[in-house]
Amino acid sequence: xxxxxxxxxxxxSAVTLVGCASTPEPVIGAASIQPRTDLGQQGYSHAxxxxxxxxxxxxxxVNVFREPDLSVENVxxxxxxxxxxxxxxxIPAAGMTAREFEQDVARRLLAAGLRSPMVSVNISEYASHLxxxxxxxxxxxVYTFQxxxxxxxAIAMAQGPTNLAKRDQxxxxxxxxxxxxxxxxxxxxxxxxxxxDPVLEPGDRVVVGTDGLSVFYQGLLQALPAFGVFGVAAxx
Length: 236
Description:
The chain is α+β, with helices and mostly antiparallel strands. Helix content is 24%, strand content 23%. It has 5 helices and 10 strands, in the order αββββαβββαββαβα. The protein has a 5-stranded mixed beta sheet. The protein has a 3-stranded antiparallel beta sheet with strand order 2-1-5, with helices on one face. Strand 3 (82-85) and strand 4 form a beta hairpin.
């Protein structure tokens, strides 16, 4: 009985230690918002965009006041950034804010002969905002996220890291004009508030630990110290 109790206590202690390791104590005060250049984070930001510009695959509802035949629900921007509307045909929308697109549609309707058109545009789905979460997470997959969501949100959508995840080795792949940039983050430090928790960009790929990485990138990560320089790599 004593041996059983000791074993049970030891098991509870181990579980407690694992719990402590997985949920580090947050540091009270302002969280870190500074990117670490030694980890390739200079292309990542804590700041959310103050306005949203439409992108291919986004879904819109366009309402023309008192003109139901000219109004549409859930129309999607094509890969070319065009959207098809009654009377107007295919017109460009990508790169505009919803307000700018309202004004553009109203101007086009006025030119087409409609008197004093009143247009409202609502974004019904941010379908362009996809993030891929792979590696040592509970539920890998491709997830839709709201503009302004952070890296921690992507990991949470995948139900968090597994017990065997290397939480100090989170690689984020991001497309740029120079190629694919890679930065390294530490989940525990992000949870504590001592490392930047960056805002996601559409098309980001998040890999937790080394699982799911190609052999090349596994070797790259494993060749570096746990908190060493990961830097930025450009892949063409």
